[in-house]
# Entry
Amino acid sequence: MAFAPKPGCPMCSIVASASHTTPNSPRSPTFPTGSTQPEVVWRDDNFTIYKEKANPVSSKGHLVVAFNLHVPSLYTLSSTDLPLLVSIKNLATRLLSSLIAPDAASAPPTPSVAAMLPTEPVEDPNNRFHIGFITPPFKDNKIPITDHLHAHAYIEPADLLGWWRGVAYSGLAWYAIDDLIAEIRESVSNNRVKSGYQNRRAPIDRVPTAGARAGTANGIETTEAGLAASIPTIEDGGVTPTALLPPSRPRTPV
# Structure
């Protein structure tokens, strides 16, 4: 599945401008005071994330997560791309956290591959982070790009939204990434996953690849091709059943 860069696409231009940097790395570029040039803060094989400086929706922080490929629509994604959605959530949460406390000693965001592994989910304890997509036919009239898939992540309150722009970030058009992940998993598995709730941690959240693979009862793989370059699997030495278990506790002598 190929999604070549589109000439004249602003998102493709931003992705191209960051393509020379080291993959799986945060960036700390220097910009003149008052500059509205996109400030790329993260790039990996799948995403380029920049800080929206020209028209942020929140004075606390607003990030845009652009797919490196020119993916035209949210509806292009399939269940195979669930690990990518989990990676967006984890990366955006870590980067928004760094905006709240930029001087705090914290580890840099993990690479996209590591974000796909079964680690403890990244938390937003105060539910201040909003991460999701604006669904068509709605759009952010200040960032009116509708044919290159990108997610928005911001810290509430959205104090810089006007009433008209606010429609795109309301329940009418906003598709929270938690809801999208939950609903895709529910559609391809027998897991009943809650959506629309805060603080809804579940064991399935510890398995980012849950629901991403499909097959028949006789072991034939029917998984569709996804957007990610590769997803670690049991067969190729990636995720193993042992890795899914919680860490063992030391035994106390009797």
The chain has a mean pLDDT of 77. The helical segments are 10-17, 82-100, 112-116, 163-166, 177-188. The two ends are 58 Å apart (CA to CA). The CA atoms of residues 86 and 208 lie 6 Å apart.
